[in-house]
Amino acid sequence: MESPPITTAPSETQVIEESAEFRTLRRSFRSFAFPVTIGFVVWYLLYVLLSGYAPALMATKVVGHLNIALVLGLLQFVSTFAIAAWYARYADRRIDPSAAAIREARGAVVRAPREAAE
Amino acid sequence: MNLLASSATDHRGLTMTLFGVFVLATLGITVWAGRQTKDAADFYAGGRAFSGFQNGLAISGDYMSAASFLGIAGAIALFGYDGFLYSIGFLVAWLVALLLVAEPLRNSGRYTMADVLAFRMRQRPVRTAAGISTIVVSIFYLLAQMVGAGSLVALLLGVSGDGAKRWTIVAVGALMVLYVAIGGMKGTTWVQIVKAVLLIAGTALMTVLVLAKYHFNLSSLLGAAADASGKANAFLEPGLKYGATGTSKLDFLSLGLALVLGTAGLPHILVRFYTVPTAKAARKSVLWAIGIIGGFYLMTLALGFGAAALVGPKAIKAANAAGNTAAPQLAEKLGGGAGTTGGAVLLAVISAVAFATILAVVAGLTLASSASFAHDLYANVIRRGKVSEREEVHVAKWAAAGIGAVAIVLSLFADKLNTAALVALAFAVAASANLPTLLYSLFWKRFNTVGAVSSVYAGLISSVVLVLFSPVVSGAKNSLFPHSDFHWFPLENPGLVSIPVGFLAGWVGTVLARREADPAKYAELEVRSLTGLGAH
Asked: Which residues 6+ apart lie within 8 Å of B364 measured at CB?
């Protein structure tokens, strides 16, 4: 019950790791996930800092009783929903197909430990 | 107590009946789920057979605690805009889980968070550290929920006195142990799904009723809330709660950081990703969760401002100084007011929803911590992996009882603790100890055992020690020990310091370690986490 063993020599996953297909998959995942994460964290912290340190700006009325603070808060909801939808689309198109292709091509090499145990 | 107490007798019978129906129904589900639970994968991970939508509901049920339902509505009702700030952090945090954690974790782990952290490291030291941190985070969170439950249920039933509070804590503790020990992950998941549906239905109903009173015009609701608050436009602007001093502004930044980085390090949330069959299903469950949780927090906005406008801060503070009963009070008002049948019915329904909310969250916490005890500390550290699955599950069930007992006893003694501070502390530990280790493990090839152990312990110890010497524990009016003063750390939330400490310690430990990381193990983890090859 240590970390699940694999049935092949470790070098075979290293071969996959260094293959062109896998590098492409890693690049498509990281080039989306990392910058977008930095982006939404900065956008959120900006909002928090504005709330703390620029109350006068945030109090500016936009429509009726709706001020900039509330609008920016609601925009955090909007951006969260939008990023989630964007990632879902991106993963469907760019990540899932290449992950599936690698699974299909290499599935025989690395078997699931559960099967191996049986 | 006036508003609730006056009509408490009208609705108490009904509330008790609804509580009883919920408890019986969920126990029925639990027994049914227990019969379907055959092996360890069933007990720990619900057989990995839930769909993305079901798991999305269960995640929402696990996450939307009584603190968010009652606490945020109350905070908005009393502090206006500043109460709303909380919910934004709680929601944005899910993007970290979506983009960086859910899918790789699903592919590379088996039953616990430590499975992933220890994947390519030496098992015993890393499992020990991760197991301890899992249990500490879960116990802090559990205490917050149970202490809150004690005062809340007593308040909702209109019974006062410490006796009622204590019996509530004991009953909640006993129920959560039953859910977990009998129903395992399957039972717990269904309890959370039922709760999520009830909570969403209850808040949606109240939101529609509030908005209808203002002809679905958000601006006039805001105006009415600002007028009733007695603080005019300041009520709709930042600053009422966190804007007083330079320290309170920093405290808010610290809290915001802990909220946004903590969610993806909460063990009871992470184990939910093991209940679905694939990484894609894990992604779908987070997408559903973001939709459900986001919708819920938008509705708490209407509830909070509605409570401020319709109930008024004076009546809310009179019932509970922290505003925790604002939502039930609003329900009574919307149903027709105190003394009316409609008021009593809606109050009883919303009280029962709050009770369901507490039970589902504490069950999830008990499951995550007992699973980590059995799978990480007992099976892999103490017995070095030489234990049958059957015995491991058996230990997990007893661990649930043990953790339940510990939580009950601590809650009985800790009933003065500020529950919001406890939740914030749990998030801070999760963000400082768990998230750095998780991210380094998944994405940094050089990361090694020394780095992993350093980041967990440094994050865990720094956040706990800073809180110990913060105004939460001593030196302020609402401290745990208001009459002594040994605080030197000015902030209530340690995140601003402890999160960087956790990340830094992981890096320093890795660089200084003599034994280098095993590139073959990283290849295994990376290939598995991105493609699902070899995943459980």
From this structure: B61, B62, B188, B192, B268, B272
Residue A84 with chain B: CB contacts under 8 Å: 94-95, 98, 286-287, 290-291
Tell me the ipTM for this assembly. 0.92
Query: What sections of B102-161 are H helices per DSSP?
Result: 102-108, 113-117, 123-157
Query: What does the pLDDT look like over B112-143, one tens digit per residue?
Result: 999 999 999 999 999 999 999 999 999 999 98
* The amino acid at B202: G
Residue range A47-92, pLDDT digits in tens: 999 988 888 899 999 988 899 999 999 999 999 999 999 999 999 9
Task: Enter the pTM of the model.
Answer: 0.92
Can you tell me the distance from the alpha carbon of B45 to that of B41, in angstroms, rounded to the nearest whole number? 5
Report how far residue B235's alpha carbon sits from residue B290's, in angstroms, rounded to the nearest whole number: 28
Helices (H) and strands (E) in chain A, counts: 6, 2
- Give B92's contacts in chain A (Cβ within 8 Å): 40, 44, 76, 80
Amino acid at B171: A
Q: Is A61 helix (H, G, I), strand (E, B) or coil?
A: strand
Chain centroid to Cα B174, Å, comes to 19
Maximum C-alpha span of chain B: 73
- Cβ B67 vs Cβ B419: under 8 Å: yes
Calculate the dihedral angle through the C-alpha atoms of B375, B378, B384, B390, rounding to the nearest 10 degrees: -60
